[in-house]
Specification:
This protein is 53% helix and 19% strand. The chain has 469 residues and is of the alpha+beta class. The structure holds adenosine-5'-triphosphate (ATP) and magnesium ion (MG).
């Protein structure tokens, strides 16, 4: 069942329950209101009757009192009226006898009598009678009693028809309110469910690969917030998808270029061998060696990334000296810097004491950062400066190279991130895999340190490693 139908069913059930409770409340309230009105009315009749009896007793023959006496019988439910004196002798009586007994109403079979006077129910030839009598003191002296006989069946019928009339009005109003409620519920469920439907549609579109699909901007309520969260999530998915595409294309490129290089060298060796130019073969073998080393480095980096991502990297902690490690890295890169005509220097401010860390991993970090400085510098110098501060040892690698645009600095330490080289006048063939700084940052942070970069494009860059001691 759809969420809209469930909501509709729930709200309609709720509406029906409210209507049922209202009906019951109305019925019981109205029933007791009608019963107490009737009680009051009957008592007032008895009271008026006692007045008339007194009048007739005190001023016999007075015409108006007789007229009133007769008038009582015009009330349908009164079947007999009489007055008696203090000896119980009836001095006035009139009756109207309805020969057809009326059926009792189902709604009012019994009703409480008033507190004042004597109220008794009797059966008179199949007609149930409510006999009421009230004593009054006459002016002439002595007590008189007024008697009124009511037909209980007629009283109950009268009350019944009055309850039916108000109930009919109540049901008309309730039906109108119910219909309005149903329309309201239809509108509400539509308004509530619409954003959910839009979201389901968007999730389906994104699931089918249309990552550009977004939910139209909704209000500032929870649904609006959910829609904007969803859109943000879709943006991230799109970004990840683009990264994945870049990753696949960069991996393909990084794997293919050394393999193609090896293939070309092998073809060349074959040609040289056919032409018996054996003296040129070692040069090609040297190239093959370089290409395979590059391939190996790339595969190593990929393996390292997968280890980092699966949380399987461990450190082999022992005593290390950052000065010694930096010196090793500088010496290893000096021939490369020499080839490019770049001056390299290592400047150590104070005596650098031993600290604890994984020497191989830290060497890897320094080799990459100093290597980058040489790689991305065409002329000038590369300097490595080591200083200490309380709790820290600091290695600063400065170059006078091509520099890094300000907006790229935040991305430098991301996986596979390489700055578009064409815009910087730097041949893309000389770029690496874009994994070096990502791995370096991870290793430094694993040691509890941090790395920062700053640069002025065209003037040079500066990478600083803070290492805790
Ligand atoms: N000193 C620097 N001067 C200018 N650009 C730099 C410098 N260091 C890094 N970069 C830029 O940052 C990118 C990322 O460096 P990173 O060391 O992660 O990758 P890489 O050197 O290209 O490849 P890898 O180190 O994996 O062989 C580089 O491709 C380069 O564009
Ligand atoms: Mg590098």
């Amino acid at each position: 069942m759809s969420i809209r139908n469930k909501l509709l069913l729930f709200m309609l059930t709720l509406l029906a329950a409210v209507a049922a409770v209202l009906t019951l409340l109305f019925f019981y309230n109205e029933r007791s209101a009608i019963a107490s009105n009737n009680q009051r009315k009957n008592f007032q009749i008895l009271l008026a009757m006692s007045e008339v009896c007194r009048e007739i007793h005190d001023t016999p023959g007075k015409s108006s009192a007789y007229r009133y006496f007769k008038a009582f019988l015009k009330t349908p439910e009164i079947i007999k009226v009489s007055c008696s004196d203090r000896r119980g002798r009836t001095f006035m009586e009139d009756r109207y006898y309805n020969p057809y007994p009326h059926p009792f109403s189902n709604l009012f079979k019994t009703f409480p009598p008033p507190q004042t006077g004597v109220w008794e129910t009797k059966n008179d030839n199949g007609v149930e009678i409510l006999q009421a009598s009230l004593k009054a003191r006459s002016v002439k002296g002595g007590a008189i009693t007024a008697h009124v006989d009511f037909s209980t069946q007629l009283i109950s019928q009268e009350m019944d028809s009055s309850l039916r009339q108000t109930s009919a009005r109540f049901f008309i109003i309730l039906s109108l309110a119910f219909a309005a409620g149903c329309i309201g519920i239809l509108i509400i469920t539509r308004v509530v469910v619409k954003p959910i439907q839009l979201m389901a549609e968007a999730a389906r579109m994104i699931g089918s690969g249309r990552l550009g699909h977004r939910i139209p901007a909704a209000g500032g309520d929870e649904m609006g917030m959910l829609a904007s969260e969803f859109n943000e999530m879709a943006d991230k998915l799109k970004e990840l998808d683009e990264m994945k595409k870049d990753f696949v294309s960069s991996i393909t490129h990084d794997l293919r270029s050394p393999v193609t290089g090896i293939e070309l060298c092998a073809d060349l060796i074959k040609e040289l061998a056919e032409k018996h130019e054996y003296n040129k073969i070692p040069e090609q073998l040297f190239s093959i060696n370089e290409h395979s080393q590059r391939l190996n480095r790339f595969i190593d980096s990929l393996l390292e990334i997968s280890k980092i991502e699966s949380g399987k990297t461990t450190l082999d902690i022992k005593a290390v000296n950052l000065e010694e490690l930096s010196d090793r890295a500088v010496r290893a890169l000096k021939p490369y810097a020499g080839q490019k005509g770049i001056k390299m220097e290592l400047v150590v401010g104070q005596t650098i004491s031993d600290t604890r860390g994984d020497p191989d991993r830290l060497y890897q970090v320094l080799a990459n950062i100093i290597g980058n400085a040489v790689k991305f510098t065409n002329s000038g110098s590369v300097g490595v400066y080591i200083t200490t501060a309380p709790g820290w040892q600091q290695i600063r690698v400065c170059d006078t190279g091509i520099g890094i645009p300000e907006h790229e600095i935040k991305n430098l330490f991301s996986k596979f991130y390489r700055i578009n080289s064409d815009s910087r006048g730097y041949p893309s063939s000389r770029q690496g895999t874009g994994l070096g700084l990502f791995i370096a940052k991870f290793i430094i942070e694993q040691h509890g340190g941090r790395i920062e970069a700053k640069s002025s494009p065209g003037k040079g860059s500066e990478f600083t490693i803070f290492f805790p001691t």
